Every structure is written in structure tokens, then in C-alpha cells.
Amino acid sequence: MTQTFTWAPDAKPTGTTTFRVLKAQFGDGYAQTAQDGINNKSESWPVTFTEDVSIVAGIKAFLDALGGAASFQWTPPNSVPGFYKCDSYSMKQVDGAIWQLSATFNQSFQP
Questions:
Q1: Residue 29 has what DSSP assignment?
Q2: Full-model pTM
Q3: 72-74 and 21-25 as β-strands: parallel, antiparallel, unpaired?
Q4: pLDDT tens digit string along 22-39?
Q5: Among 47, 45, 44, 55, CA closest to 102
Q6: Backbone φ/ψ region at 96: left (φ over 0), alpha (ψ -120 to 50), beta
Q7: Alpha-carbon distance 101 to 106, whole Å?
Q8: What is the CA radius of gyration of the chain?
Q9: Which residues of the chain have pLDDT under 50?
């Protein structure tokens, strides 16, 4: 069963949409392109969480449990829920018990 990521990132994350296309370039300058697969559009969201150490520890435990290989459900800002994976994150202490966890959520697709 897919788990749901429920923590809210710091304000105003910026997502990137990437389209995967096949391209055939011809000698006369003409190029032919086509969508590559049925899920050729994917999103990537760099997110940051600056919270008390106990909250950041919960986020870390969630991501660690999935090990970068399993997907989780998450709703990006101004979007619909989807499946995402996180294969790395970084942490730093901001001040006292306040820590910051930074990660990138990459959209994944289910069969």
C-alpha cells in the first residue's frame, strides 16, 4: 500500500516539468518529434522543510523507510495528488532545535 506524505514544505516551492520526446534530425534541418511513451510528462519538486527537530526526524524516518525505491503519494502546490520518489535528501541544523531538510520529489508512475 502506498503511503501518503503529509508534511507541508516551506513556502513557494518551484517545480519543473519535463517532457520526454523522441527526435529524428534530418540533414536538411527538418526534425521530426513524437512523445516518448504514455507518461512523457513528469514533474520534479525541490522542497525544503524547516521545522523543530522532532518534525524533521519524522520526515527523515518516512523517506528512510521508502529507501528511495518506493513511491509515495504527495500533492504538489496547486496540483493534484500523484506518485513521487525521493532518492536523496540533505539536512542541516539551523538554530538550536530547528533543523532543515531539503529534498527533491520526482514524479513516478504506477502500472
A1: S
A2: 0.88
A3: unpaired
A4: 999 999 999 999 999 999
A5: 47
A6: left
A7: 16
A8: 18
A9: none
Q: How far apart, in Å, are the Cα atoms of 38 and each of 6, 71, 93, 104?
A: 28, 19, 42, 23
Q: What are the φ/ψ torsions at residue 9 (nearest 5 degrees)? A: -70, 165
- Decide if 70 contacts 85 (C-beta within 8 A): yes
* Three-class DSSP category at 14: coil
Burial of 74 (0-12, 13-18, 19+ CB in 10 A): buried
C-alpha cell at 50: 524547516
Identify any residues that bridge with 65 across adjacent strands, giving them in sequence order: none
CB 21 within 8 A of CB 35: yes
At 69, the amino acid letter reads A
Q: How many residues appear in the chain?
A: 111
Separation in Å, CA 7 to CA 30, 37, 49: 47, 32, 8
Rounded distance between C-alpha atoms, residue 24 and residue 95, angstroms: 53
Grid cell at residue 46: 525541490
- pLDDT for residue 1: 76
